[in-house]
Design a protein that fits this description.
alpha/beta, 6 strands
Length: about 210
């Protein structure tokens, strides 16, 4: 390991993705990847022992997922700096990870230099948003537009996205380690908050929000 480098831990459920970003970051003189995890549960178990300067993680992972991982990591180490590296290119996910306590949000389509710039910024204690997302978020704030999805809790949001993608209540319950009855309660609350009558209407709302492809 080089001296005075930024220690990074990568968390992503795809081995090839982790390998790609590890190789990418090896091209930097001031960033070292010191560890990897394939899910949020593993990240929560390992990060304190590795003590990374910046935890770089995906949010769409099996198990507890990225948002819950952020919450559990920060509950153990409130000062841990977290950068989310996600395939989602919408403002909604970016806003939610910042609310959860992450310090930055970059999409996986970003250029290598953008990722490195984000890691350096987060390491310095700054908040970093990919330029396109930052601009979209600024426009949204200036227009004063309110998104009904903001009324959803983190668990409700996760259930909403999964349902909009066509996943069954049982499958969602298995992934979130909850009972189908609890998922059903979340579904009822989601429909009430979004004024949706069925799964098709939920899918339309998700498409309009840019959360899933039409």
């Amino acid at each position: 390991m080089k001296n005075n480098t930024i220690k990074v831990m990568l968390v992503d459920d795809h081995t090839v993705v982790r390998m790609g970003f590890r190789l990418l970051l090896q091209g930097s003189d001031d960033i070292d990847v010191i560890g990897e995890a394939q899910c949020g549960e593993d990240a929560v178990k390992q990060f304190q022992g590795l003590a990374p300067d910046v935890l770089v993680l995906d949010i769409s992972m099996p198990g507890i997922g990225g948002l819950e991982t952020i919450a559990r990591v920060l509950a153990k180490e409130p000062q841990q700096k977290i950068l989310v590296l996600s395939a989602h290119e919408d403002v909604m996910h970016a806003r939610r990870v910042l609310k959860a306590g992450a310090a930055g949000y970059v999409t996986k389509r970003s250029a290598a230099e953008v990722l490195m710039q984000a890691i350096r910024a987060v390491h310095k204690g700054q908040v970093y948003l990919e330029p396109d997302i930052a601009q979209a978020m600024a426009v949204e704030q200036v227009s004063g537009s309110k998104n009904p999805l903001d009324a959803l809790t983190e668990k409700e949001f996760k259930v909403f996205v999964a349902l909009a993608k066509g996943e069954s209540v049982q499958a969602i319950a298995d992934v979130m380690s909850l009972s189908p009855r609890t998922i059903g309660t979340h579904l009822y609350n989601i429909k009430q908050k979004l004024n949706a009558g069925n799964s098709a209407e939920l899918a339309i709302i998700a498409i309009r929000a840019g959360l899933i492809a039409p």
